[in-house]
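2024-03-11 09:14:02 INFO worker-7 job=invfold-0412 stage=load source=structure_tokens
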């Protein structure tokens, strides 16, 4: 009797965790370094990893190949700021080739500072979509929130990406009470006027950032939505970009408005992703420490992709059910977002 194909799929070669969630999305933090020092992400003085402890670009390609062979269909490159890493374009070109082997989408999250000079090359390398972080439209405030950033360079970067043919750029805005909560509506208006999507993100307690109490700055997605709904009619949609954001459409526009709400809306049941930190730790959950040291495997057994794949497969059993972010002002997780890859 013929066996239905469903039953002959070898279970041990797909990324399925202990809760039956299929993992088809991986994010690589390709550097912990950055030209900005955003107040929610880094402290003013940061110690960066010694270069020898950061995954090489070749190791990142090997990881990409292993994940795609295991069924990952989407890779997002993040950091730190990916575009400040030397020769990063080569990585995009190599990962872009994996589209011939099952990868459906290579994407990038960037602060936009280098986009003006790199957007066309990223497009040519096969990057499908770009998220650009933008927390303020006011140049002074932008500088205060990023500590070093130049708003105009980011706006030029967004424009360059559009000219290069990136259709649906998405803005990411972390909203902090008392710092930029009055910009919820202006940021949405900017997105709409420029044909962009925008996601609002609740701050997550990663890393000790020093100068302020995160709990005091908490501004919930519900508060953001209420601000928006006073001005724009929001229409709920079931559309997804494959992540935890819940999306709304603004009537009469092409823009989608998303909310990433780790505190106010639990999204872990549908989690489809894992991350690899800049130092090669496979992180099974953004908000927990469960991890496996893939850098060690890559360096102890160079060229042994099967061993690497077995380690990734075995790690699936460690993926926890969900995060455990509390808003009591302490860092829930000691590692910083720039190591982790947001
Ligand atoms: N440097 C790039 C950027 O800023 O887009 C990529 C890395 S950054 C860590 C990725 C995203 O994480 C950004 O959108 C940033 O706003 C967000 N992020 C950083 N720290 C965060 C935190 N503590 N809570 C929530 N989002 C955070
Ligand atoms: Fe750099 Fe991005 Fe972190 Fe800002 S959020 S400090 S741009 S890594």
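2024-03-11 09:14:09 INFO worker-7 stage=emit residues=342
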């Amino acid at each position: 009797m013929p066996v239905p194909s469903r039953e002959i799929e070898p279970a041990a070669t797909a990324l399925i965790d202990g809760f039956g969630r299929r993992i088809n999305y991986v994010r690589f933090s390709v550097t912990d370094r950055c030209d900005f020092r955003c107040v929610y992400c880094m402290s003013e003085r940061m110690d960066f990893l010694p270069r020898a402890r950061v995954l090489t670009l070749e190791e990142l390609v090997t990881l990409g190949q292993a994940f795609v062979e295991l069924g990952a269909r989407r890779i997002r490159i993040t950091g730190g700021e990916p575009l400040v890493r030397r020769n990063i374009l080569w990585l995009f070109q190599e990962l872009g080739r994996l589209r011939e082997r099952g990868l459906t989408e290579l994407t990038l999250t960037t602060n936009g500072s280098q986009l003006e000079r790199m957007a066309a090359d990223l497009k040519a390398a096969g990057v499908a979509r770009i998220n650009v972080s933008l927390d303020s439209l006011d140049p002074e405030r932008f500088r205060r929130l990023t500590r070093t950033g130049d708003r105009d360079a980011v706006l030029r970067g967004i424009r360059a990406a559009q000219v290069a043919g990136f259709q649906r750029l998405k803005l990411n805005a972390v909203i902090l009470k008392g710092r930029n909560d009055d910009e919820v509506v202006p940021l949405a208006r900017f997105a709409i006027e420029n044909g962009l999507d925008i996601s609002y993100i609740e701050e997550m307690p990663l890393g000790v950032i020093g100068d302020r109490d995160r709990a005091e700055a908490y501004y919930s997605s519900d508060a953001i939505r209420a601000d928006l709904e006073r001005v724009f009619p929001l229409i709920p949609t079931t559309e997804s970009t494959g992540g935890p954001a819940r999306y709304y459409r603004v009537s009469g526009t092409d823009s989608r408005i998303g909310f990433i709400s780790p505190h106010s809306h639990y999204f872990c049941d549908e989690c489809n992703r894992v991350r690899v930190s800049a130092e090669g730790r496979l992180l099974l959950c953004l908000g927990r420490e469960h991890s496996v040291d893939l850098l060690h495997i890559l360096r102890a057994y160079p060229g042994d992709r099967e061993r690497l794949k077995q380690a990734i497969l075995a790690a699936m059993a460690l993926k926890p059910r969900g995060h455990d972010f509390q808003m009591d002002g302490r860092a829930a997780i000691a590692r910083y977002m720039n190591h982790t890859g947001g």
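2024-03-11 09:14:09 INFO worker-7 stage=report msg="The pocket of iron/sulfur cluster (ligand 2) is lined by residues 34, 36-38, 41-42, 79-81, 111, 133, 337-338 (CB under 6 Å)."
2024-03-11 09:14:10 INFO worker-7 job finished
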